[in-house]
Amino acid sequence: MKTLRILVILPFYGGSLPIGRYVTSALKEDGHLVEVFEAPDFYSAYDSLKNLKVTTDRLDYLQNSFLNVISQSILAKVETFEPDLVLSMAQAPLNHQALKRLRRDGVTTAMWFVEDHRLFTYWKTFAPFYDIFAVIQKDVFFDELYAVGQPNVLYLPLAAQPDFHKSIELTSVEQRKFGSNISFMGAGYPNRRIAFRELVNHNFKIWGTEWEGDHVLEPLVQLKGARISSEDCVKIFNATKINLNLHSSIQADELVTFGDFINPRTFELAACGAFQLVDKRSLLPEAFEEDELATFSNMNELIEKIEYYTTNPKECEEIAKKGRERVLKDHTYLKRMRTLIEFTTERIDGWPRQQVHSKIFSKDYPPELEQDIRKLLKKLNLPEDISFEDLVWAVRQQQGTMSDLDTAILFLDEWQKLYKERN
Amino acid sequence: MKNYLVIQLARFGDLMQTKRLLATLCARKDAVVHLCIDNSLQSLAYKIYPQVVIHPVAAHGTGLNRSEAMRAMLQDNRKAFARLKSIDFETIYNLNFSGLNFRMAGLFDPEKTKGYSWQNGQEIVGLWPSMAMRWSKFRRIAINLVDFWAGYCPDMIAPESVNPAAQGKGGGIGVVLAGRESRRSLPANILAKITATLGNSGKVDRIVLLGGKSEQAAGQSVIKGLPRNLQEKTKNLAGKTDWTHLVETINSLDMLLTPDTGSMHLAAHLGTPVKAFFLSSAWCFETGPYGLGHTVYQAVSDCLPCLENRPCNNDLKCLECFTDPSFQRFLVTGKPEHAPAGIIGFKSDFDQLGQIYTSFAGINTDMEQRMKFREFIRQHLFKDGGKISDLEKLFAERVYREKDWMTFPQPIATFG
Lengths: 423, 416
Fold this sequence. Notes:
The complex is a heterodimer.
Chain A: E1 5-9, H1 16-29, E2 33-37, H2 40-48, H3 56-81, E3 85-89, H4 96-104, E4 109-113, H5 123-126, E5 132-135, H6 140-148, E6 153-155, H7 172-178, E7 180-185, H8 190-196, E8 204-207, H9 230-239, E9 240-245, H10 264-271, E10 276-279, E11 294-296, H11 299-310, H12 313-330, H13 333-347, H14 367-379, H15 388-396, H16 404-419
Parallel strand pairs in A: 1-2, 1-3, 3-4, 4-5, 5-6, 7-8, 7-9, 9-10, 10-11
Helix pairs in contact in A: 1-13, 3-4, 7-9, 10-12, 15-16
Chain B: E1 2-7, H1 12-17, H2 19-26, E2 31-38, H3 42-48, E3 53-57, H4 66-85, E4 89-94, H5 99-105, E5 113-119, E6 122-125, H6 127-135, H7 145-150, E7 173-176, H8 188-201, E8 207-210, H9 216-224, H10 228-231, E9 234-236, H11 243-251, E10 255-258, H12 262-270, E11 274-278, H13 284-287, E12 295-299, H14 320-323, H15 326-333, E13 343-350, E14 355-361, H16 367-381, H17 390-399, H18 402-406
Parallel strand pairs in B: 1-2, 1-4, 2-3, 4-5, 7-8, 7-10, 8-9, 10-11, 11-12
Antiparallel strand pairs in B: 5-6, 12-13, 13-14
Helix pairs in contact in B: 8-9, 8-15, 11-12, 16-17
């Protein structure tokens, strides 16, 4: 596959942030050259504006100005890196003006909108400015996006990152800390608060934020409702006998909402080889067969199945094994990125643009040097047929001081730019 | 023992103009000074800076095709880079605003690198060169490049101790035919007239014409333009001198006639008197000869100094003062009343900051501003900023930027 240059724009924070990082890993794993705009690094400065105690119009002006600087930073990065694709995660801080500029300059842009479009309605203003709009819902959302002027809509469900979401050996201390018969990892949405009250008599641990003020569930909430790192999530998944996975809802009338999209936890739990009980979703059957996931449709069924699977651990293992195999086969971020790239190739004429690519090695290349450069390619996880131009960028991406070989490569690149007209 | 590295990847003239910085570093206690240069200047560097450890690299494009460049950069340069990386440098002075310099800086800790550094793939321009880029907008004022590069070191040695005071060595006149930028050089017919005037005004036994291979024809034209008595004494050495020969030749002369060239700086280094002709983009306050005993004829007009890479829309009017017949007389007498319009005659001199030029003919209109600017820079470099005049206030506004002081890495410890 052709090595592409992809600039991933992370959001300041939120659920799409870890997904952006998995996307980055997957693209690199597939041999692409990836640059990341680290928006989280800028967020504390942005947030500090709120402490100014100034008039609201001034604050508004300052916040917009700050976000404009952020967008300009991204444009500058595009100018230097010359990506084939700018891939924004939901809430990426790229404003309208910057998106217009990218379109004018012929830079292909895509957003992976990993949100529920009914709740996060800002897609209405941004979707037309992207060349590709990937979403985790179908049907009516597709129609709405077409109506708003976005013709290139791709259904791209969430996934797992197998080198991160995996089965791990836990120490006895970790098993004690993170383990339980039943657990739930996620935020305290209204439907979950009501639903989980029925489980208080079980050996049940609740992990995650936004559970404050619920006296019934409070004793079950771990670490005083602190945010749980992605690494610890994997430990919890691995340590738990039955992982509950109830999709969130902002209303509490119906605890199981039969919504459409599949949350990332579904794929992550399965990738870990952990057993989960997940509520039925309309898009679930096309992602998993019935014997690959255990599901429930209402609270009674959930309670029944908890009791059933508690006493049938072998069956749990079997389902979890199949679920894991399915994720590794079909639901990895690597797969998702390949789908996105294929879709972009189909939809955008002449994409990716042909760029000048020089071969690294020529016939009379000194063997020792070739060996050292091949070692460098391996270290940087680059394909053997990568162009010299892409190697230069990959070397430049490294942190800290450079080695003699790194410097020599960058020096040669600069020399060629300076004297190219003479050769 | 403390190791210091200077990276100077530019040309002959720049290598010569790095002297005050190198001499300052050499004067430090227990210092071992290293200099990284283009390999074409290697033998010259050994000769002029014998106390410095030379690290040659292939930086210039002279005559290399892609395959040769690949070997030069990835094999030879790599070895040089490995050597440099193995040395624990106290400070690295990276002097040139060039992609090559930025990439080399990647070898070193950006905290230890002055000038142009590299931080996790980002090119960073230091405060001092940033200031210079800002004041380049008022180039007529300027400071000498030798002093600018020495300005990286607050303990810079006195300007008087950089080069010996110039005095004739008895070996006749040297004539540098052209610099790298042809517009900054005098045409052969004018050069011949000047050479004839100075050659006949004193007792000259020898005239040598200096330059590269490409100036051989210009040398022949100069010889043709000389009176017969001088033709016999003239040798066209263009393209025939290696570095050793060039150093020996210039070191033997009574006087070097030259535009703004590397040879001019070499003459200043050796203490050979220079008569320099500055026009077009050449401005003596930036790159004039360093030391005492030199003379500069600086063309002045509203459009000077211009930019080399922009075409001249004024029919090279800065050349007129050198073609004016009275210039020949002025060359001999040095009297202000003989100076043609559009020229200033300067003698080299020093102030506390470094090289200055004192006018002996023509109107030195920018002098007051220049002095104030030098005072502003002096206060900045020597942390002696207790006073301010209106002009300095203007410079402060133009040369300092908010980010300089808002993000200054090591605030001066007023309270200890």
